[in-house]
Write a structure and sequence with these properties.
Helices cover about 40% and strands about 15% of the residues. With about 425 residues, it is of the alpha/beta class. The strands form 4 sheets. It has a 7-stranded mixed beta sheet, sandwiched between helices. α7 (about 185-195) runs parallel beside α8 and α11 (about 325-345) packs parallel to α13 (about 410-430). The longest helix has 22 residues, at about 325-345. It is globular. The protein binds 4'-deoxy-4'-aminopyridoxal-5'-phosphate. 4'-deoxy-4'-aminopyridoxal-5'-phosphate binds near residues 110, 112, 208 and 270. Keywords: Aminotransferase, Pyridoxal phosphate, Transferase.
Length: about 425
């Protein structure tokens, strides 16, 4: 591997001034210098195909988004205590992407802040405290977000499960207890029993429609349709975390909850909403916004500022103008089909799952489905050495994750799959 001379030096400076708690990708971390659309360039001028980063949703450094930010930054940037047209204009445009009942939006600066805010609003609306969370779920880095994130509190170094949390098993049709067409119903039956048996009424139930940190696990078909009514029966509210799955990435739908044929009471958005500019939001109903409005004032210094609104608006426009949801569908379907072909060739590919340009490839030891973290890491690092970026995640970090900018092409997808094929061929020749 060709190494940038200052890589070691840069790592040392990070540790000196920040902390090794900031993780780095790859055995050989990359010193990045530029990016454009689905490509990133290191300090030596090497070009990486980005099959991983979902935050630059419409493409790294997209000129329309860059221009929107630059123009607005030079004109006015302030906070919501003044009137400016961009706030309601952007809010209206964003809300037009949701079902009619979701008609209020609160802007913050990250997915974590949005998750945190949903909890505050849920308590304000229900006056209940228990929160039902998904096994392996992740919702952010604030204390409350960590409380509701099994991925963090259940880590050996984590804080453990708080008393007000009720965790429900992930309805995983590959690795879980139930498989097949009825799995969603069967998982839901157990979760509904948990809901009915709880001593304290549930304030909120939060999950992603495809559990990203859990290893790109789509909730079994029909699952949420059974859970939502049980939560609402207790006076609780249903939250969909669309930070990873939203904005057309899934191809068939603009939001992940649509695939489950439900309408949540609150939606959390972040990451792709502003293509990398720090932004998050909570979208909710009139009734919940009204309950929240009766409490202490809500203010975010940066949330909904004119620059953020201009950037967010430009992202929505680019998604439409460039038909990126349609591209996610077309390229994603093709990508998944050639990955499924590759699965036939290698026993170590246990499962190919996900939707649109949000896919997971589970690497296993053989037919018994034992996780294979070391091979997953080998593939990830070899791809990096061959200038392709993907990552790993899941409870054993054994699932390859691919969720590229939505301008990804079929040729890009083929390059990734051909390269994984090459890596595995070489691997099995050596073994
Ligand atoms: N929810 C989900 C599903 C996420 O993946 C993340 C970030 N990985 C967050 C919330 C938190 O977002 P942020 O990092 O912007 O605070």
């Amino acid at each position: 591997v060709h190494k940038t001379p200052s890589t070691e030096e840069e790592i040392k400076r990070r540790h000196q001034y920040i902390s090794p708690i900031l993780s780095l990708s790859y055995k050989e971390p990359i010193f990045m210098s530029r990016s454009a659309f689905q490509y990133m360039y290191d300090a030596d001028g090497n070009t990486f195909l980005d099959a991983y980063n979902n935050i630059p949703h419409v493409g790294h450094s997209h000129p329309k988004v860059v221009e929107a930010g630059q123009r607005q930054m030079a004109q006015l940037n302030t906070n919501t205590r003044y009137l400016y047209d961009l706030l309601p204009t952007y809010a209206e445009k964003l809300l037009s992407k949701f079902p009619n009942t979701l008609n209020k939006v609160f802007f913050v600066n990250s997915g974590s802040a949005a998750s945190d805010l949903t909890m505050r609003m849920a308590h304000a609306h229900t006056n209940q405290k228990t929160v039902m969370v998904m096994e392996h779920g992740y919702h952010g880095n604030t204390q409350i977000s960590i409380d509701i994130s099994d991925y963090k509190f259940n880590n050996p170094k984590g804080q453990g499960q708080k008393k007000y949390i009720l965790k429900t098993p992930i309805p995983d049709t590959y690795r879980g207890k139930y498989t097949g067409e009825n799995a969603g119903k069967l998982y839901a039956e157990e979760a509904v029993k948990q809901i009915e048996d709880t001593d304290h009424p549930i304030a909120a139930f939060i999950t992603e429609p495809i559990v990203g940190c859990g290893g790109q696990v789509p909730l079994a078909k029909g699952y949420l349709k059974e859970i939502y009514p049980a939560i609402r029966k207790q006076g609780g509210i249903c939250i969909s975390d669309e930070v990873q799955t939203g904005f057309g990435r899934l191809g068939d739908h603009f939001w992940g909850f649509e695939a489950q044929e439900v309408v949540p009471d609150m939606v959390i958005v972040g990451k792709p909403i502003a293509n990398g500019h720090p932004m998050g939001a909570v979208i909710t109903t009139d009734e919940i916004a009204e309950s929240f409005g009766k409490g202490v004032q809500f203010f975010s210094s940066f949330g909904g500022n004119p620059v953020s609104c201009a950037i967010g608006l430009s992202v929505l426009e680019v998604i439409e103008e460039e038909k990126l949801q349609e591209n996610a569908k077309e390229v994603g379907d093709y990508y998944k089909s050639i990955l499924s072909e590759l699965q036939k060739k290698y026993d170590c590919i246990g499962d190919v799952r996900g939707s649109g340009l949000f896919l997971g490839i589970e690497i296993i030891k053989g037919k018994n489905r034992e996780t294979n973290r070391s091979l997953a890491h080998h593939i990830k690092n070899e791809l990096r050495n061959k200038f392709i970026l993907i990552s790993t995640d899941g409870p054993d970090d054994s699932v390859l994750k691919t969720k590229p900018p939505l301008c990804f092409t079929k040729e890009n997808a083929k390059e990734v799959v051909d390269t994984i094929d090459e890596i595995l061929e070489a691997y099995y020749q050596k073994v």
